[in-house]
C-alpha cells in the first residue's frame, strides 16, 4: 500500500499525550506541509498560531470549552482565516499539517468545540479574523481502535444522487 494512504488510514483522534516535546525539525516539517497546502487561486488566505508556552496552552484549552487534555500536548495549532475569507482553504491547510504530524508519529485531534472570542483573546487574534479549528500535536499516550465508518453504498453515488456506485476495495 502507498505510504500516503497508510498515513491517512493510521490517523486517529488522540486525547492523551505523552509529555515529550517535538523536535524543531519535526515541527518545521509539519508547518511546511501546511505552507504547501493548496488554496483557492493560491491566495494563502490563512495564518497559523503555534502555541507552545504551557500557560498559553492551558488558557487555550480552557477556551476550548474546558477540554483541558488539549493542553497536555506539547503544542497546539490554531488555524486562522483572514477577514472575509471562508474556512475551506484553512481546513485543507490544517488537514495537511495533521497528516504530516501523523506521518512523523504524532497524534492530533480536530478541535471544533471552542469559544471563538475566548480563543482570540488568549492568542491575540484580531476580532475580524476567523478560526477554523485547533489541534493539539504530540506523541500519543493511547492507541485507539479505528472508529466505525458507514458502508460505501451509503456514501458514494454514480453520476447522480441516489444512483448506486459499484465500489470495492
Please provide a brief summary of the model:
This protein is α+β, with helices and mostly antiparallel strands.
Overall pLDDT metric: 96
Gross morphology is globular
Q: What is the spatial order of strands in the main beta sheet?
A: 1-2-4-3
- What percentage of residues falls in helices of 4 or more residues? 25-40%
SSE ordering: HHEHEHEHEH
Question: Which CATH class is shown?
Answer: Alpha Beta
Proportion of residues in extended strands: 5-15%
Individual helix count: 6
* Strands, count: 4
Roughly how many Å apart are the termini? 12 Å
Q: How would a crystallographer describe the biggest sheet?
A: 4 strands, antiparallel
**What would the CATH topology be?**
NADH Oxidase
Q: What is the total number of structural domains? A: 1
Radius of gyration: 17 Å
**Poorly predicted spans:** none
CATH architecture: 3-Layer(aba) Sandwich
The structure class reads alpha+beta
- For this structure, what is the CATH homologous superfamily? NADH Oxidase
Task: Tell me what you see in this structure.
- The protein is globular and about 50 Å long.
- It is built from six helices and four strands, in the order ααβαβαβαβα.
- The chain has a single domain, classed as NADH Oxidase.
- The protein starts with a helix and ends in a 14-residue tail after the last helix.
- With 169 residues, it is an alpha+beta fold.
- A four-stranded antiparallel β-sheet has the order 1-2-4-3, sandwiched between helices.
